[in-house]
Design brief:
The protein is an alpha/beta fold. It contains 3 helices and 6 strands. The chain is elongated, with a radius of gyration of 15 Å.
Length: 127
C-alpha cells in the first residue's frame, strides 16, 4: 500500500519503460507524501490503444493539495516516459484506511506514523 495500477496499451511498453514508470511513480509518491518506498507497489495491465490510466489506492488522511500534487506529477512523468501529451493521461486516487491494509504481517500505520511502524517491523523481521 499504496497500490498503483497503470493501464497502458501493451504495444507502448517494454520492460525498460515499465521499470522507468514504476520508479517514477514510486519516487513521486515518496517525495510528495513522505511514505517509505517499501510501501509502494506498482503493477501494469494492458489497456485499449490510446488509453493511459493510473489508478492509485492511497492511505486515507492525505490532504487535497497532496493528492493533487501526486496526480499532476504522475501524469507528467508517465506522459514523458511514453512520449504522449499529458492531457492523454488520466490519474485518480482512492483513499483507503491504513487499517484495511496489511504489509509484512501487520496493519499499516496512519500517515506520519511510519517511523515507529518501520522500527517495530524491522525488529520483528530480525527475530
Amino acid at each position: 500500500m499504496p497500490l498503483y495500477v497503470c493501464s497502458i496499451p501493451a504495444d507502448t511498453l517494454d520492460a525498460n519503460r515499465r521499470q522507468q514508470i514504476a520508479a517514477a511513480v514510486t519516487r513521486i509518491h515518496c517525495d510528495v507524501t513522505g511514505a517509505p518506498a517499501t510501501f509502494v507497489h506498482v503493477v501494469f495491465r494492458d489497456s485499449e490503444p490510446g488509453q493511459y490510466l493510473v489508478f492509485g489506492t492511497i492511505r486515507a488522511g492525505r490532504s487535497d493539495p497532496t493528492k493533487s500534487a501526486l496526480k499532476r506529477q504522475m501524469a507528467e512523468a508517465v506522459a514523458e516516459r511514453l512520449g504522449v501529451d499529458v492531457e492523454k493521461i488520466t490519474v485518480f486516487t482512492k483513499d483507503v484506511p491504513a487499517s484495511w491494509v496489511m504489509e509484512g504481517g501487520t496493519l499499516l500505520p496512519e500517515p506520519g506514523e511510519e517511523g515507529d511502524w518501520l522500527a517495530a517491523h524491522a525488529s520483528h523481521a530480525e527475530r
